[in-house]
Amino acid sequence: MLQTVMIPTKGGLNLSATNQELLSLPNEALILDNMEASRGGGYRRIDGYEEYGTTTLPGGVEPVRGIHTYLGGILVIKGTSIYHSFGGFVWTKVNKISNGVTKAVLDAQPNNAELDNGVTRKVVNIKTFVEGTKTHVYMVTGNSAPIYLLINGTTEVSALYTYREVALGTELVGAKSIAIFQDQVILANTTEHPTSIIYSSLSTTDLTVAELAAGLTVREKYDGSTSGQISVSKTITGLAVHRNSLYVFTDTTISKVDGLNSGNPQVIPVTEDIGCIDGATIQEVGGDLVYLAADGLRTLSQTVRIGDVELGVISRKIAPITDALLIDRASITFSSCVIRKKNQYRLWYTSSNTPSDEQRGIIATYAYDSRTGGSNWEYSLMLGWEVNSIHSGEDSNGVEFSVFGNSTGKVYSFEKTFATFDGTAIPWKYQSPFVDFGDSGVRKNIHKALVNMIAEGLVSGELAIKYDYQSNHSPQPDPWNLVNQTPPAIMGVGLLGNPLLILGAGGFTNEAIYTEGSGFQASFIISDVGLSDDPFEIQSIQVNFAPSGRI
Fold first, then answer.
1. Once rounded to an integer, what is the mean pLDDT over residues 426-433?
2. What does the pLDDT look like over 82-115, one tens digit per residue?
3. Is pTM, for the whole model, over 0.90?
4. Kind of pairing, strands 177-181 and 184-188?
5. Is the dihedral of CA 61, 66, 70, 75 positive or negative?
6. Which residues contact 398 (CB under 8 A, 6 or more apart)?
7. Strand partners of residue 406
8. CA–CA gap between residue 10 and residue 297 (Å, rounded)
9. At CA 440, angle to CA 436 and CA 446, rounded to 5?
10. Bridge partners, residue 73, by sequence
């Protein structure tokens, strides 16, 4: 007699559980390549990317060292140059010493401010500070003095450009971390002071008459009466501002700095056992700080008890991945961003030992769990992205948009439902755990699998079934094609005045595959066939099988 079992798709990658544990977790996944946990449930094929704008970024194949959304466009640090564009149509080289000049004047100036004198570090860190109608930019390169940039305007023609280094002898040279806390710019890990944070002035009274006349911002002043420095115990790896507190990370410690605006700052230890291995991994997601520690991804969250801090590992399900990349971290460039509309943290770990089309990254989605009424972290992997630097911000209309750059000097937009990786078909794959349908001692003959999908366009793939942990003693049938899945027809709305009534099919595309083979356990694999698919969601797999006895 045929029996029916539904396998939902919810929970994300689980690479740490044993095969026996996974028998009771059929909703989770053994493989989720270029898939993501959907906020509506199920696993969704990720969006692709395409080259940003219509004009190629100048500078040849120099690697992108930093990128940041700015004034509805983007700033790109490429090699020893900094470029800005309001929309990818015109690129302006902005790292030329200037003070409120037009683009025409800027373009005519000599290249008198090449970054780092040709010495390039992997990552340039960038922060912005909004003051009235102006958005100030502060950045550190890890080699030179900090940099100040202001583009005041909304188009290349109308904008006025200001650029200068923030100089204080050699005190600020080589800063690797930067944060903006309240009204101060905080620098850390300079060449001369690797264990110190150096904070800028608070009051404009610290500025001299000449500095005021030159338009110097108070956040560029580091030798005034309200500026200074304070040390922690080890070399600083990152800074983060969270819930009105400044956190200072080393590779094995976390501290909180209080009283910066009082003139009497204090370092308060949070933990002496846990730290962050790279500040480029620190992001705020859903009210928590997420960062990469020596034992995996962690969150830092303040509880309802004032001053209490809770630390916790969130990546135990993907521990084999985080353990491996931590071993290889000397060759890795880390970069991360947050996709706010999806409650996602994305971490790329680009290795100099890996070809560009084999680079990987992690997607961590803080997803709602209908079973518990709470939320859990669900994981998947990105495959085939090479990312040197990345940022997610807002365009001129306040709409979230995301950009990244790679080692070839190109910049790309993503998260716009692009179907390909800049014209190349996106490889994708999902595999369920091996499931025994309630009894591992009974052989099952699987007759049909019904794949429930939500297609956002044309999708082609294939379904494979692997029996008995892919044992050589069990026949493994060839995969079956899922041919040209498309969204169902929606015929109209508003019947008899009811605006909620929709005629036609629902949102699901149901593909029934008549299968073959038998085994005690089975795993279901849905993957691409090398075509350019539109995004889609796998919602569940309905399996019809007949028990055939304990043989």
1. 97
2. 999 999 999 999 999 999 999 999 999 999 899 8
3. yes
4. antiparallel
5. negative
6. none
7. none
8. 21
9. 45
10. 70
